Amino acid sequence: MCRSDDFIDTIIKHKTKIEEVYFSWGNFANGRNLQIQQAGLTPWEALERQIADLKKLYENGIKFNLLFNGNCYGKDSLSCAFYNKIGDTVQYICKNFMLTFITTTSPLIAKFVKGNFENIKTRVSVNMEIGTIQGMDYLAPYCDGYYMKREFNRDFNAIKKLKNWCDENGKTLHILANSGCLNHCSAHTFHDNLVSHESEISKMDNCYEFSGICHEYLKNHEKRLSLVRDTNFIRPEDLHLYDPYFDSVKLATRVSDKPVQILESYVNEKCTGNILEILEPNHAGRIYPYVIDNQKLKNDYLYCSHDCQKCGKCEENYKNALINLEEMYR
Questions:
Q1: Are residues 253 and 265 in contact, defined by beta-carbon separation less than 8 angstroms?
Q2: Which tens digit of pLDDT belongs to each residue from 112-134?
Q3: Cβ atoms of residues 294 and 323 within 8 Å
């Protein structure tokens, strides 16, 4: 959220199709980089910029969804001071803007918000990986909605079951459309924990830099089939198929250098070019000079048995859409 004037203007341009804008605040750990860490700006300047952007969006009737979706809050996780800080932050934003939703990975933050801010709807973050009715039911007293586990994005049988339960229990169901993460990533929790502590980690004399296990994995050409078979992104052209099941569709843009392209693609339900460029994380640079042409991708994977050991549709789909730019322009 709030990456550039162009992005803010694009949000306003399409405001009739946008349910809400997600943002983190100050130095709270969250699921991606700290909101105030923007190139060329001091923390105070970045916060001033964020406030100005929020006011502009507020004046255009955009709803807001505040993120407390860090995977770990360390020693602050249960402290009175931490919850006082959350309460003060929510009160400030409510007083100055229109705060409608809070999305969190913490059941205690959800409980705190429900107990103190009755007009704010709480949602479970996609980072909690909720993919079962049991998982939703456990958190039902504290949550009004759930972001579904990424791995179920292409499984309509699972989606229908979750949607039916939500309808029967007065809950809402939500989906992240443009994740570039690989399904069932063994290092996902580890990576999310690093992100939560990145401010502390950046001050250390570190031996390694970790940007995701997928980056190493995809260096192997034979593994790049995973970009189609083992991912969960939804092509903008297929977005309408999800309308009956989800109250809103989330787009990840916070660490992308192409937020306008992402928003325009999904609002217009059309992506021409490399599908990887509108995903977060964006793997386009990892496989260059190869690209995956979205217009050549088929949506067969939405209607398969999900038995990858016996099915070759995704491999055929991947090979059909893969283009070597260097060969094309020789």
A1: no
A2: 999 999 999 999 999 999 999 99
A3: no
